[in-house]
Design brief:
The chain is built from five helices and five strands, in the order αβαβαβαββα. By secondary structure, it is an alpha/beta fold. The protein has a five-stranded mixed β-sheet, sandwiched between helices.
Length: about 130
């Protein structure tokens, strides 16, 4: 076990205390916002930031230096405004919660590798078409 002497510098805080996650709340119902703020209040290294409406998302995310955007869910498809935002800021994670708070989905941009079963002209054409869809 490592002991620290009286004149030694203090030990650094644990790494999890140094990592800060900024959560931006945008256009969520007030009750849901309160629940999220209460749930995250005691979490070290997590800061909840209130945003405006869902109108100027890119500006709000940049100003808040957000890592996670929490907003109201719009269904199983990702709305274009969120898709554009994630394209421009690929490290951003979206946590979309249904208005009643019963369902949520986490969205993130991530590279995924899909190996082709065969490498042939037909397989390459099919892969190009699949990538374009």
């Amino acid at each position: 076990m490592h002991t620290v002497g009286r004149n030694a510098p203090p030990l650094p805080p644990p790494l999890r205390d140094l990592v800060s996650t900024r959560v931006l709340l945008v256009a969520v119902p007030p009750l849901l916002g309160d629940i999220v703020r209460d749930a995250l209040a005691a979490e070290p290294g997590v800061t909840v930031v209130n945003g405006g409406s869902a109108g100027e998302l890119e500006d709000d995310v940049a100003a808040a230096r957000a890592d996670v955007l929490l907003a109201e869910d719009a269904g199983t498809e990702l709305p274009d405004r969120y898709l554009r935002l994630m394209y421009r800021q690929p490290r951003l994670r979206l946590l979309l919660v249904s208005p009643d708070g019963r369902n949520a989905a986490l969205w993130r941009m991530e590279p995924r590798r899909r190996a082709l079963r065969e490498v042939s002209p037909r397989a390459l054409v099919d892969a190009v078409r699949a990538a374009a869809e």
